[in-house]
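Backbone geometry:

***
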Amino acid sequence: MTATVRSDLPLPLERRGKVREVYRVDEQRLLIVASDRISAFDFVLNEPVPHKGEVLTQLSAFWFAKLAAAQPHHCLTADAGEIVAAVPALSAHRAAIAGRAMLVRRTQPVAFECVVRGYISGSAWKEYRQAGTLAGEPMPGGLRESDQLPEPIFSPATKADVGHDENVTFAHVAAALGAPRADELRRRSLALYAEARAFAATRGIIIADTKFEFGAAPDGRLLLIDEVLTPDSSRFWPAGEFAPGRGQPSFDKQPVRDYLEGLRRAGTWNGEAPAPSLPADVVQATTARYREIFRRLAGPQAENA
């Protein structure tokens, strides 16, 4: 399997992130290209995961089209033919963008990640186990790891370009953005999660938690942006294997995390740069998980991914 480590297109490069390049098309539009780079524990690893960028892009496009609550959003098209027609400068680069590029409206991103948690896992479980709280706010007693919460919780976080994001309270977001905007972020995030969770359940998938990002359009409307309900932004659990009281198998980069954690436990990696290389079987297992969750959720649309 071949992989795309980075794109190099004849457009001005606005920024290169951990896994994406963002190009300027004009004052109103951007082109976002998802590579097959993979990050874990704040490191971008040397080995790419084939098809990862295509899954992130096409699964996001699937959700943008599928969810009524996704409106309004920034996605114009993720079809390579339509992108080339709209941006003729890319006519010789269709193969490089096929499946992994999205033409979007430019927005001013909101400075918070809008996390919604339906189950207690990850950093939320760690904080709850230590203090009985989430982002400093009290939670019901007696919860076990992976338990379903009584109601989904809006749990915003700061955006960190380097290091970890940090959970913050809703009051913190309201103080920074104003109560009306904070209320809109919470309302839209919870509506998105509820609609997506109900659909995923019909495909045998639990969406344990996810994060959304929003941006302000020039006219002030709040648009859903970035990736949506992908293995990089969400915990997808197979419903048939769900058992609270422990961690759950998930459709994401878990094989990579497990491998790196195993090296740390064995004392062969100290968790600092440079990150170790990934064996071929770990890369292949990760590709398989990304493609499987795409197939389960998007059905026939995912067959060629």
Q: What stands out?
A: The chain has a mean pLDDT of 94. The helical segments are 52-66, 80-86, 94-97, 122-131, 170-177, 179-202, 254-266, 280-298. The first strand starts at residue 13 and ends at 16.
